[in-house]
Amino acid sequence: MPRKLSALDPLRLDNQICFAVYSAAHAFNRVYKPLLDRLGLTYPQYLVMLVLWERDDVPVKDIGEKLFLDSGTLTPLLKRLEAAHLVKRTRSSEDERQVLIALTPQGHALKEKARSVPPSILAASDCSVSELVAMKDEIVALRDRLNAVIGE
Amino acid sequence: MPRKLSALDPLRLDNQICFAVYSAAHAFNRVYKPLLDRLGLTYPQYLVMLVLWERDDVPVKDIGEKLFLDSGTLTPLLKRLEAAHLVKRTRSSEDERQVLIALTPQGHALKEKARSVPPSILAASDCSVSELVAMKDEIVALRDRLNAVIGE
DNA sequence: TCACATTTAATTGTTCGCAATTGAATATGC
DNA sequence: GCATATTCAATTGCGAACAATTAAATGTGA
Questions:
Q1: Which chain B residues are closer than 8 Å to A52 by Cβ?
Q2: Is the separation of the CB atoms in B81 and B45 below 8 Å?
């Protein structure tokens, strides 16, 4: 019996790695949602907070470079984090073009509440840490190759 | 020398597989953008067309189940595809609750133009087909485990 | 110095993505 | 047969995501 043609069809949905990635991102988002609701954060806001918990008082551009997001996404998101009293936005005195993002005490404090999130995600992944790390490294390598093509 | 603590920090951005997936999805989107612009499609619209090129004349719900999207996303998207004369939306006569989505002749014809897309993506991935297939299968398995947790 | 380019955020407009609700059609239990 | 529940698409509202543009600040070269 010949193999089904569809198994090789380059336009078949199930053969698209991009769709695997796209749908996995949505699946992660849905798992994170109830966990982050308790922190009062959306998933992209959580990513911004992860950046700030590592290093604080950074310009918008630095956050954008780490998360691959631009000011059109970050400006309103950061304003919402400011409205939630998690960050403060202040224009740099050295370079008036820059807006520096700093954590408020509440923003710092939220990190402790956030520590319960990664274990829940790990449990939902139903997978060993070493397997996840290996997958993560592969996906990051693919992402970086794709991003390299874009900059041409 | 002790290993850097950050290499194990569960809240470190670079240790998040979800961020790897999230940022890879955006990278794919950016690579697809110029290719799909030529077809007059956005990436989610392209996914819907992939579904319809496999099977036509299906209710909105079927498309949603395949793509993990709900009517809040699909209804306006399908209306835009209809405005672009790629699909026709007709209420089923057997079950008036359902709206059936059928390709127009232009919708069918677009498939031929789309055949050039996957090879370009493969090239941008800078990776063998077998490696991509292996990664895709791993990511799909992870996605399905995550989705299984959501339904609880 | 002064014209010009570059950098940085902010803004605008379009398109997702989803939760929550609505309303209509259909199915089910009694 | 009829009340009730379920199914399905549409709608509303909010939060991303990004392209394109704007505006202000800074840097550069002649």
A1: none
A2: yes
- How many domains is chain A built from? 2
CATH of the domain at B82: 1.10.10.10
Q: Identify whether A56 is part of a domain.
A: yes
pLDDT of residue B63: 97
pLDDT category, A151, cuts 50, 70, 90?
A: confident
| A29 shares its domain with A52 | yes
Please report which residue ranges of B43-116 form alpha helices under DSSP H.
43-54, 60-67, 71-83, 105-114
Q: Summarize pLDDT for A19-72 with one digit per residue, the tens.
A: 999 999 999 999 999 999 999 999 999 999 999 999 999 999 999 999 999 999
Tell me what the pLDDT averaged over chain B comes to: 94
A21 vs B15, B16, B139: nearest CB:
B139
Q: Is B127 exposed, middle or buried (0-12, 13-18, 19+ CB in 10 A)?
A: middle
Q: Which residues from A are below 8 Å from B147, CB to CB? A: 27, 30
The answer to whether residues A40 and A89 belong to one domain is: yes
